[in-house]
């Protein structure tokens, strides 16, 4: 049997690093940085890591809201969504993630677009 995406991304350590790099990249991205001015960044990193862990076939550790509930009232635009995808690719490249895994991660993110944009 082939390894889960969670395993291929380096398990807990790999996902924790990716989530941390992703949030750090958001903070430097002018399109979306303002969204995080009131955030508790370590907590947001942890929430992202737990969501990615569960969503990539790792242990079921995510206890946050679903994606509609998390982003309700934010009225996120298409441009902001693309900015997050840009940052996802930057974080994946920074960590040397392979082409196949990058494609899978991008697909997982893109497939959640309608749960995030315009809520
Ligand atoms: C598929 C794309 C996205 C996914 C998978 C995603 C996932 C998440 C997750 C897992 C959380 C943390 C929830 C928790 O810990 O309870 C979160 C919070 C958040 N997301 Fe997203 N998100 C996406 C797109 C976006 C976009 C496009 C924006 C707009 C810039 C955005 C803005 C935020 C903000 C502001 C928070 C709250 C951070 C905090 O203060 O804790 N998200 N998102």
Task: Give short descriptive properties of this protein.
about 120 residues, mainly alpha, Globin-like, about 65% helix, binds protoporphyrin IX containing FE, heme binding, iron, transport
Describe this structure in words.
By secondary structure, the protein is mostly helical. It has a single domain (7-116), classed as Globins (Globin-like, Orthogonal Bundle). It has 7 helices and no strands. Helix 2 (11-28) packs across helix 3 (41-55) and helix 5 (78-94) runs antiparallel to helix 6. It is globular and about 40 Å long. The N and C termini lie far apart (38 Å). The model has no long low-confidence stretch (mean pLDDT 97). Heme binds at residue 71. It holds the Pfam family Bac_globin. One of its GO terms (biological process) is oxygen transport. Its cofactor is heme. It comes from Hyphomonas adhaerens MHS-3.
